[in-house]
Amino acid sequence: MASSDVPNLALGSSTGLKGMPVIGLGTGSEDRDPSALKRAVLEAIKLGYRHFDTASLYGSEQGLGEAIAEALKLGLVASRDELFVTSKLWINDAHPDLVIPALKESLRNLQLESLDLYLIHWPISSKPGKRPATWSQEDLMPMDFKSVWAAMEECQRLGLTRSIGVSNFSCKKLDNILSFAAIPPSVNQVELHPIWQQNKLREFCSANNIIVTAFSPLGAKGTSWGSDEVLDNEVLKDIAIARGKTVAQVCLRWIYEQGATLVVKSYNKERLKENLQIFDWALSEDDIQKIKLIPQHRVIVNKAFVSAHGPYKSLEELWDGEI
Asked: Which residues are tagged with the site Lowers pKa of active site Tyr (predicted)?
């Protein structure tokens, strides 16, 4: 599939006219094997992927940067500008004086002069400094949203990133950011798939010109933070059989039809190829109605924050009781 066949969405508050490819390759992985990552990125570029998602937390920035440098050297892409690269600010750097240094560190890891998108990874801060294996309650603190967002805006003004956004933000927290932002967030990256459809949040973001990006759009099956509930859902299986598609393709097509973008992680060549094959067919109205009736609940976020990122009194304290 040619990269030109992947649709792009315009970012509301981006510097310049560069669009965001609606599908990207995620690089968050438990094995953190840089050679496997590099091979996957190079294969993805050959297949037509141009959007790559990383984060300071993932430990994948360096491997992704090496793969991009190799792709440029091999002529797989003509220039850096053909690629859309996202990274994220982790909670220990979510302090106004640490945002720019953290982004510069990510750029060094990636061997890039600028990002296309920089996100606040979680709506919470932790004590500055080294990252412990787990966080105690005492390590975590409310984020100073106004000053941290001002530092994010400065990143864009300095040309260190073309656009800025957030991840795991509720409607209430987005509304707070919008109340004082000079540069509104372009993107909110959240858990999104047919088992957790995020209707209220998607409506809020659409009304405020914020693109929703789905992380773990297939439920992150096989990971410690994921679930098999999405890919093993019987409604989705039935639709996939009727359409002659995989369950993964049905999920990704559904997300695309909702007007959202997505980042999906796979290092398998055939699945990388299959995940791109969602743009030349459509779900029927009957399919859409069946998916609407699927019982709704999160399958990723609670496990992710508690098991991988340390304890917190209640997830609702992060989300203000709403998604």
From this structure: 88
Q: Residue 185: which of 149, 215, 147 has the closest Cα?
A: 149
CB 26 within 8 A of CB 263: yes
Other beta carbons less than 10 A from residue 66's beta carbon? 19
Residue 193, marked binder = no
Neighbours of 224 (CB within 10 A): 10
Q: Residue 228 is encoded by which pair of tokens?
A: 């098999």
How many domains are there within the chain?
1
Residue span of the structural domain in which 280 resides: 8-319
Neighbours of 41 (CB within 10 A): 26
Residue 212 lies in a domain: yes
Q: Specify the CATH number for the domain of residue 115.
A: 3.20.20.100
pTM of the model: 0.92
Domain assignment of residue 310, yes or no: yes
Dist. CA 188–CA 210, nearest whole Å: 7
Residue 21 and residue 84 in contact, taking contact as beta carbons nearer than 8 Å:
yes
Q: Is 58 a catalytic residue?
A: yes
Between CA 120 and CA 131 the distance in angstroms is: 16
**What is the SS3 assignment for 152?**
helix
| Whole-number Cα distances in Å, 250 to 195, 253, 298 | 12, 5, 19
Q: Which of 8, 55, 16 is nearest to 161 (CA)?
A: 16
**Is the CB of residue 237 less than 8 Å from the CB of residue 211?**
no
Tens digit of pLDDT per residue, the chain (323 long)? 666 689 999 998 888 888 999 999 999 866 667 788 999 999 999 999 999 999 998 888 999 999 999 999 999 999 999 999 999 999 999 999 999 999 999 999 999 999 999 999 999 999 898 676 566 777 888 999 999 999 999 999 999 999 999 999 999 999 999 999 999 999 999 999 999 999 999 999 999 999 999 999 988 766 666 678 899 999 999 999 999 999 999 999 999 999 999 999 888 999 999 999 999 999 999 999 999 999 998 887 544 344 444 444 444 455 454 43
Q: Is residue 107 part of a domain?
A: yes
Q: Does residue 42 lie in a domain region?
A: yes
